[in-house]
Amino acid sequence: MIDWSNVTASGYQELGPKPEELQRSKCVLGFIPVIYYSVLLCVGVPVNVLTAVALSRLACRTKKALYYYLLAVTGSDILSQLFIIFVGFLLETAVFHRDVPALLLHSVSAAEFAANHASIWATVPLTVDRYVALCHPLLHRQISYPARARRTIAAVLALSLLSGVPFFWWSDMWRNSRPPTGLDAVLIWTHVTIIYFLPCGIFLVLNSLIIRTLRARPRRARCGEEPPPPRRRRRLGKTTAMLLAITSVFSVLWAPRTAVVIYHLYVSSVHRDWRVHLAYDLSNMLAMLNTAVNFFLYCFVSKPFRGAVRDVVLLRGGAPDPRRAAPHPQAPTNASISSLYSGNNKRSQRDSTPLSPPGARKPL
């Protein structure tokens, strides 16, 4: 980010600059990344905490697996903001200037990659859940419930934590003067596969199947197949729009960083070319923006989420689920049904009674 000397790179100092230091790329952005990440942290953490509280209320109220998956995405974004933005970009780079023990530096690097992988891969079970809900609704009713969602999220987080361990040996692209080694190439390709190519491939396939299913529904309706109720159709459309927005924003914001990392590996090093250095800085800034935009996507698409956020901000208790608030109208409903039956019985008795002749006296 900022052109400070890498104290952890060597354990001794020389009187004159080394030849590779004369060719070292300069950070033309100066303190702009520090200001940007500070603002992103000050905005992103509060809105993500607000998102987590609102989603927790919705998950407890509706018992839907969808909100548990969204809650996992939000929690992973908070971890990414704390480990990558606060510890990695601000503390290590801006405050300590990388003047920290090498063991701590590499340990934080592994934690950053684990949080990053969790933030992205938490969206994969959400995509699978939406695909099953739209394309196989009967199967979705059997396999989609909160307990299974929690187990899936725990497995994703555990695998993400394990996937961060190899990146303990990730090299510092900004400050390593040597060209990338074979280990660097393996780690870079593992990183871009885990972080971009594999999840984007899953998103592309499943979203394509979802869109094809939605387009085929009008044709099936014209052929006589009964369409879903309008309310459920609107709800499925909104959740699908939210899923497409989340995955599309991720694909767009992370594409530049993936391209720059591969370019650094095969064409020009970040350390030696200021243009690659600048591109790497900007691509990291775009990628980290992905951890703070989901709140606004949820507010734009989901009316229940907006209501839950309003309740949290106004310190109000969550409104009861209208589908569960059925005990009070139950008595009038039963009364009206019983009165209907009694009216029918009286009507049937009246119809079965023979008519008395005109002029006959009615019994007292």
Describe it:
With 364 residues, this protein is an all-alpha fold. 72% of the residues lie in helices and 0% in strands. Helix 5 (123-135) runs antiparallel to helix 9 (230-266). The longest helix is centred in the middle third of the chain and has 41 residues, at 182-222. The model is unreliable at 1-17 and 322-364 (pLDDT under 50).
What is shown here, in short?
With 364 residues, this protein is mostly helical.
Chain-wise SSE layout:
Layout: H1 19-22, H2 32-62, H3 65-95, H4 102-121, H5 123-135, H6 137-143, H7 146-163, H8 182-222, H9 230-266, H10 274-289, H11 294-301, H12 303-313, H13 327-352
Helix pairs in contact: 2-3, 2-10, 2-12, 3-4, 3-5, 3-7, 4-7, 5-6, 5-8, 5-9, 8-9, 9-10, 9-11
Keywords, separated by commas or semicolons:
13 helices; 72% helix; single chain; disordered C terminus; 364 residues; disordered N terminus; mainly alpha
Radius of gyration: 30 Å
Query: What's the quaternary structure here?
Result: single chain
Give the strand tally. 0
The run of helices and strands is: HHHHHHHHHHHHH
Q: State the separation between the terminal residues, measured CA to CA.
A: 104 Å
